[in-house]
Predict the structure of Cell division protein FtsB.
Amino acid sequence: MRWLVLTLVVLLAFLQVRLWVGDGSLAELHALRARIAETETELARLQIRNNALAAEVVDLKTGLDAIEERARSELGMIQSGEVFLQVVEEPLPQEAR
């Protein structure tokens, strides 16, 4: 009987050690849950970005307004009959800043 109790106590101690510090322990479980939360946050951010890019692709494929807007802002396009004015401001003197 004594050996049985001693064996059970040693087995219980071994299982407790594995539960707290071993492979698959509670600490490792907590770390994995934190990584899952970070990954889900990153996934949500990337999903929002992908949705915005998909909407822009659809807009560029279907509408000429988006193409014209992009050409105006990135390439400096002007249509015939329009006048392009560029305003250049002189830098302020040092003491006026």
About this structure: The mean pLDDT is 86. Residues 22-81 form one domain. The two ends are 91 Å apart (CA to CA). The CA atoms of residues 63 and 94 lie 48 Å apart.
